[in-house]
Design a protein that fits this description.
Alcohol acetyltransferase; five-stranded mixed beta sheet; 21% strand; alpha+beta; globular; Chloramphenicol Acetyltransferase; 2 domains; 430 residues
Length: 430
């Protein structure tokens, strides 16, 4: 049975720039929670997994926290409560966190048959940081089962003390003095449908071979991420055209970008920015090759160190604004939520994130069948898309609270027409 963790003396730290936002907008009908899952080759041993959690958590102090509300800002402090406890998986994943439930934990460790899942509140870490946590947890779990798994890149030594660099606020470190001139992006086609009963998350998973997907993307002179982004944009254009709006809107996606390749940091906290590839149908019809070229050109034009530093500087300056600093938290959170609606919701038709491949040491490879990733409930009933690959299998997941399945149906049908085989699984009952 897990025992209470020792409270670290006088240890607390402020939320990073992304954490400030996610703590302000988290609510019952929006889940700033995402999930990574590993489908193992054998049924999960929950007792061994619980032992692995107990051994892994002290190495990741940034995940072992609870959130506290001050007069003006939220902050993190070490969670002294027992846990987190390994639990059977739930029917509806990525449910919103209620900060004072489940012993104040901001992560969930879940299992079902052969699947191990980790759900994380986005205020504590981004996908890159969580994948280090999950990879390390899986390594320790396999050791508990008697297998010899080495430490190495992406697998931390759980017997070593945490390093201060892993708790770095990289946004604050790299914020400069120059910002981009602010402009409010146009409202995008929202891609919504009738909402399901609360809380129902419809999940559709497509499994595709990476080699064939890469071959098709290469034929368009694009990366896998660029190609899939373009396909999704085309599906959004088709969804909008089917509704025959008199005044069609742009379709745009939020594409999270890991900043670590441009700004070296070992942080396991948040360190991402969002790109916005967009297609405006009022300019005329676009073929898929034209959309791919648009996406490819946009990503190469805007994914540069200077522009991204200016953007992250503007984000940091917003939260450091003197006026915002003195507003009480009870008034500040609605301001932050409204700002997020203007700049983080209205300009986008959805989100697509692709953390890429999940590499593990050769000793771990025989124990994992595939990886999966899922984004939680959006602020409106529209699906978000996420993908991750392991070996030659990419898992592409759509998750949303809308009744319609048109987006995922169009998306996977398009891949099949391109000669990419797709195996589809879903929790939908209609």
């Amino acid at each position: 049975m897990p025992v209470p963790r020792k409270q670290e003396k006088n240890t607390w730290y402020p939320l990073d720039n992304a954490g400030v936002l996610y703590s302000a907008i988290q609510k019952e009908r929006y889940s700033a929670v995402y999930r990574f899952s590993a489908l193992m080759t054998k049924a999960v041993d929950p007792q061994a997994l619980q032992r692995a959690v107990q051994k892994t958590m002290p190495r990741f102090p940034g995940f072992g926290v609870r959130i506290r509300r001050g007069a003006f800002w939220c902050y993190f402090e070490p969670n002294p409560n027992p846990g987190p406890f390994v639990k059977p998986d739930m029917a509806n994943p990525c449910q919103p966190l209620r900060f004072h439930e489940d012993n104040d934990w901001l992560i969930r460790i879940l299992y079902y048959e052969k699947r191990i899942s980790v759900e994380v509140f986005h205020a504590i870490s981004d996908g890159a940081g969580t994948l280090v946590f999950l990879r390390t947890l899986l390594a320790v779990y396999l050791r508990e089962l008697g297998f010899s798994i080495p430490n190495g890149p992406g697998i931390l030594d759980v017997t070593a003390p945490p390093r201060k660099e892993e708790l770095e606020d990289a946004y604050a470190r790299y914020a400069g003095s120059r910002t981009l001139r602010g402009k409010l992006e146009k409202t995008a086609f929202p891609n919504t449908s009738a909402p399901e009963p609360f809380y129902t998350l419809n999940v559709t998973l497509g499994l595709v071979p990476v080699d064939r997907l890469r071959e098709v993307a290469k034929s368009y002179q694009a990366t896998i991420t660029e190609y899939l982004t373009a396909v999704l944009l085309q599906c959004l254009l088709e969804n909008q055209a089917a509704r025959r709006f008199r005044h069609p809107q742009p379709v745009a996606l939020a594409i999270p970008i890991n900043l670590r390749p441009w700004f070296p940091s070992e942080t396991l906290r948040n360190f991402i920015l969002t790109m916005r590839p967009c297609i405006d149908p009022t300019l005329g019809e676009y073929t898929l090759p034209e959309i791919v070229r648009q996406v490819h050109s946009y990503m190469h034009l805007h994914a540069n160190r200077q522009e991204m530093q200016a953007k992250l500087t503007g984000n940091v300056q917003f939260t450091k604004n003197h006026f915002l600093q003195i507003i009480p938290l009870a008034l500040k959170n609605p301001v932050m939520a409204f700002s997020y609606k203007l700049v983080g919701v209205r300009p986008y038709s959805g989100t697509y994130t692709n953390p890429g491949a999940f590499p593990v040491p050769p000793e771990m490879e025989p124990h994992i069948q595939r990886m999966e990733v899922m984004l939680g409930q959006a602020t409106r009933p529209s699906p978000h898309c996420a993908s991750i690959s392991y070996g030659n299998t990419m898992a592409i997941t759509f998750a949303g609270t809308g009744v319609s399945s048109e987006t995922e149906r169009r998306f996977f049908c398009h891949l099949v027409r391109e000669g990419i085989p797709v195996k589809v699984e879903s929790n939908r009952t209609h």
